[in-house]
Amino acid sequence: MDAKTPYVARERISFEGRDGNLIAADLHPSIVEPHRGIVLMVHGGGQTRHSWRGSSNSLAQNGWSAITMDQRGHGDSAWSETGDYEFAAFAEDLVSVADQVAERFGSRPVVVGASLGGISAMLAEGETPREVLSSVILVDVTPRLKLAGVVKILGFMSERADDGFASLQEAADAIARYLPNRPKRKDLSGLAKNLRLGDDGRYRWHWDPRFLASRRRHGLSEERAQLQVQLADAVRAISVPLMLVRGRQSELVDEEMVAEFLDLAPHAKVADVSEAGHMVAGDKNDVFTSAVLDFLSEI
Hints:
Largest sheet: 8 strands, mixed
Number of domains: 1
Helix content: 25-40%
CATH superfamily: Alpha/Beta hydrolase fold, catalytic domain
CATH topology: Rossmann fold
CATH class: Alpha Beta
Oligomer: single chain
């Protein structure tokens, strides 16, 4: 978000997930007319709704009301009482939230889903025997992902999950080592929203540590293969407008996987964001948001 761009005031709202669990969200209302609709933005694993700040602001200035939500076990949303962080639980939470958005705001949302949020969107729209979403934008996620990239991400998430960090600066330094091509943070106030301060004075990532257990299990070959088939079937069943935004330097999605995705969904559009890795919106937010707005203008 450009420093000169006015920030759109957000309103804290909430929804109920599949199990009646609290889903925390922010509404960034459109500040121009005509109002074009609702964009529901769903973050990746280990992130929070605050990762969409730049994009949600731009959407609000282009006629779209953006809702950024914390998925179960992340940010200010409730942790699962039973530790259920299977993909089906995230997807069914999304179905529940989308239904509440439609009832509350009068139209079904466009969903922008990054990584885990994209998997939730594939399953929510592709496996539900009715239309749940008005359209789907997947951010650097396809039914098949590169195992090496998955291992790298899980390794970073696991490294300090238990011990945490002594300060925000220590956490920022860890992120800088993981993402060496991204400019280092000067203002750490945004980072603070992705961390929680424990009673022991240490900062830990703002998500339930039990979330990692199910992610590690899906790295096993058998369950991984089953998930790929399930996601491929889901994508094949999606008939609403669909787009994939890929980071050209992505460690998870390569050109072969993009081709496989288009075989499954020939009606889908694809946008490559140069100089961006898996964290597309964070790496090149202006280019990412422009691609999203172009797609929304077409539909």
